[in-house]
Amino acid sequence: MSESVLMKGNEALAEAAIRAGCRYYFGYPITPQNEISEYMARRLGEVGGVFVQAESEVSAINMVYGAAGAGGRVMISSSSPGISLMQEAISYIAGAELPCVIVNMCRGGPGLGGIQPSQADYFQATKGGGHGDYRLIVLGPATIQEGCDLMATAFEMADRYRNPVMILGDGMIGQMMEPVVFPEPLDLTKLPPKPWATSGNEGRKKNLISSIYLDPEELDAHNWRLEEKYRKIRENEVRYEILHGDDAEWFFVAYGTVARICTAVMQKLRRQGIKVGLIRPISLWPFPDEAFEKVIDRAKGFLTVEMSTGQMVEDVRLAVDGRRPVYFYGRTGGAVPTPRSVERRLREMMDGKVPSQTDYFDRVGGAAR
Amino acid sequence: MSQVTVFYGLYGSGKSEISINYALSLARQGRAVTVVDLDAVTPYFRVRDVREKLLEQGVKVVAPKESVRHADLPVLPEGIRRVLMHGEGDVVVDVGGDPTGARVLGGLRDALRPGARGLFVVNAMRPFSRTLDQAEEAVRRVTSAAGLPPSGLVSNTHLGDLTQMEHILYGLEFANSLGSRLGIPVVMVGVPAHLRSEVEKTAESLQGVTPLYLERYLLKPWETEE
Fold it and tell me: Is the domain of A148 the same as that of A107?
């Protein structure tokens, strides 16, 4: 039989993490990502790893801090409110330059919100949910296979840049099932050494892991060194997909689940001869500005669709920089944009049905659409 | 003769789609059918999410009431014991996945009508049921948590949109071997609607096991026309 397995997104990310060398997982239950913890609890023991269900998200992320400092390949997962609780430690991990992978299967917020899918944690993920000048590398898979592939990339990038990497899914990515093919498990003995880790100092000088720099000059230098690292990441780690960039005049901009919806609408419209394309950011930070440069000369406008009241659209607007209209359509709180409503919004944009030039950026959404 | 049919199995083995399609197939034969959503562990893709579509086609749905449909709590439908014991016509019960989900039925065991049959749904392309040993352990753990010994297997091996005839046949062989180990028959084989004509052309390929043709009801957001 084929190598394919039918996996829920959550299960698939857990298996992919193990194959990418993850041996430490700490978590605390929250819907809609519990299958990650359940899978890890079941599988990590089989590969000699460690699973701990902590007493809270705060505790779990600080266990990640410790395991990462000791040089382990470590992952944590949660959903929106749980990720909010972790922000202090994520800032510490970034400040102390430690690698780890964080999965956020986003649900509707703010507050306790609901348990249905959402993309309203884009700001938190990409603009620094915690304090200080730091960045997370943020990856947004649109298929379960892509999630698996990105998991290996995430661990590799986390180690290479000594920085936390977030996989930002939404509940739908976590709960839906698709066939996947997993890569062969990584040979852990072939991973690059981590000479900075606090893994026993016999025969070498002590390593110290900390994010405290009381001297302003020192902290300023530290922050600019981090910024230099982030510059390299911006230069080298931009990921995106453009569909029909060679002839499209109107572009959807969407990631994750919503990109799947926009793709379906795009295919339908193209069958009717309408020249629509899609820009799908895969790295949400660094944001793929260059994707827009590739199509800007031909593009008549961009329609950003999100499960939020408009978050990524701000980055789209920065990338487009006023050269073309940028429109927005969103649903929130677990409501998912329907193909029909997305199509209607695109047609309005194509027909010029907007109040004025200054209203290109109207935030449109809600059930009335 | 009305019957209670319980579908249980591991997470993602296809219990809900099987329950929905089986209930509809009974309704199309003119039988009175109630489908019970007893899944207290899955937040998305549940029978209650397509309640209206089932009602339109004459299938009664017993599920947690609408006001708690999205509650992050293991809520049971009102009057569940009465339905299991005295429900009119055929009753199809969709149990939550894994022993965790099956435990809910375990708590209601005394309310099940005598003669209720437990059908274990198995997809050999899913994790934790890819080998016969794994699948056998899964049957034992789930059915003992449910407190209802299995009277048969439902072969539901598939790979979503990529499902081919070879997967169906491989799954059937897998289920037959599993059934021999457990001493129970394979009573049904799930077949995606797109493979229907292929199955009908080679009727003998299913070795006498009744096919249940599956229209998908629990759709991803981009698979709907709405």
Answer: yes
Considering CB atoms only, which of B11, B72, B221 is closest to A31? B72
- ipTM field: 0.94
In a domain, A359, yes or no: no
Which residues of chain A lie closer than 8 angstroms to B11, CB-CB?
Answer: 8, 35
Give the CATH number, domain containing residue A330. 3.40.50.920
Residues A170/A307, Cβ–Cβ less than 8 Å:
yes
Which residues from A are below 8 Å from B12, CB to CB? 6-8, 11, 177
Domains of chain B, with CATH numbers? 4-214 (3.40.50.300)
Query: Closest to A179 (Cβ–Cβ): which among B128, B159, B223?
Result: B159
Residues A327 and A191 in one domain: no
Side chain identity at residue B183, one-letter code: G
| pLDDT tens track for A276-310 | 999 999 999 999 999 999 999 999 999 999 999 99
Interface check B73 vs A, CB under 8 A: no
CA distance B94 to B38: 6
Beta bridge partners of A101: A75, A165
Select the more confidently predicted residue: B204 or A234.
Answer: A234
> For A171-216, where are the E strands, in sequence order?
177-180
pLDDT in tens, B34-63: 999 999 999 999 999 999 999 999 999 999
| pLDDT value for B114 | 87
Record: contact B162-A179, CB cut-off 8 A:
yes
End-to-end alpha-carbon separation of chain A, Å?
46
Mean pLDDT of A229-234: 98
How many angstroms separate the CA atoms of B112 and A207, rounded?
A: 64
The residue segments making up the domain with residue A334 are 241-350
> Nearest CB to A179: which of B42, B45, B160?
B160
Chain A interface, best mutation among B44, B72, B134, B223, by max A CB count within 10 A = B44
User: Do B125 and A15 count as a contact with CB atoms less than 8 A apart?
Assistant: no
* Tokens 């919503």 sit on residue: A258
CA nearest A237: which of A279, A280, A283, A192?
A283
- Which long-range CB contacts under 8 A does B57-63 form with residues at least 24 apart? B57/B24, B57/B27, B58/B27, B58/B33, B59/B23, B59/B24, B59/B27, B59/B33, B59/B34, B59/B35, B60/B32, B60/B33, B60/B34, B60/B35, B61/B34, B61/B35, B61/B37, B62/B34, B62/B35, B62/B36, B62/B37, B62/B87, B63/B36, B63/B37
Number of H helices, E strands in chain A: 13, 15
CB A106, CB A119: distance < 8 Å: yes
B66 interface with A at CB cutoff 8 Å: no
CB-based contact, B72 to chain A, within 8 Å? yes
Q: Which residue of B has its CA nearest to A340?
A: B226
In chain A, the residue whose alpha carbon lies closest to the alpha carbon of B131 is A1
Q: Is the pLDDT of residue A358 over 90?
A: no
